[in-house]
Sequence to fold (198 residues):
Amino acid sequence: MILDYFLESNLVSVSLPVMHDHVHAVMEQWRREAPHFDRSPLAVVARISRLAQLIQLELERVFEAYGLNGGEFDVLASLRRSGPPYSLSPTSLSSSLIVTSGGMTKRLRMLERRGLVRRDPDPGDGRSLLVTLTPEGMRLVDEVVPVHWANEKRLLEGLPARDRAALGRLLEAFAVSLGDVALPGLERRCAGPRDRRY
Fold:
């Protein structure tokens, strides 16, 4: 229905690929082996999953050049875009990045060891912590972000600008349908829920 809207509104110019991708071959195998099953979800879900892996490999090359991995960069970027004083609670970071508290603790330890973030007592609640971007963390993330964005732009060069915009809107609609809705006021800096130390 959403795709039909974009096609009928002439908001996306879909051109048939000259070559087929891996998922196309997988769907053909299932068509042969289990023709009675509905394979249509594969066309979207399997492609998004596979593309996520292919894209991440390309993104990691940039992060590695700066001594980071994608998860660590995500933490630094989240703090940077939160605005002054560039502090968020660990719970806010975990929720925003869809990472377990254990996974977030591991990222924070690595970043703290390198002097890129620090964990300080929350002035509003001494039992809680805030993660703050250090000057060195700010310098590094400001150096990486433009290179990262240029890399993302390179990855999308195979799609016309109009199709990229339409694809972005389709993916947003899909994300919202799965419950990934922006929290009110997210564009403004928000330290999020109080955290116990970890």
The longest helix spans residues 40-65.
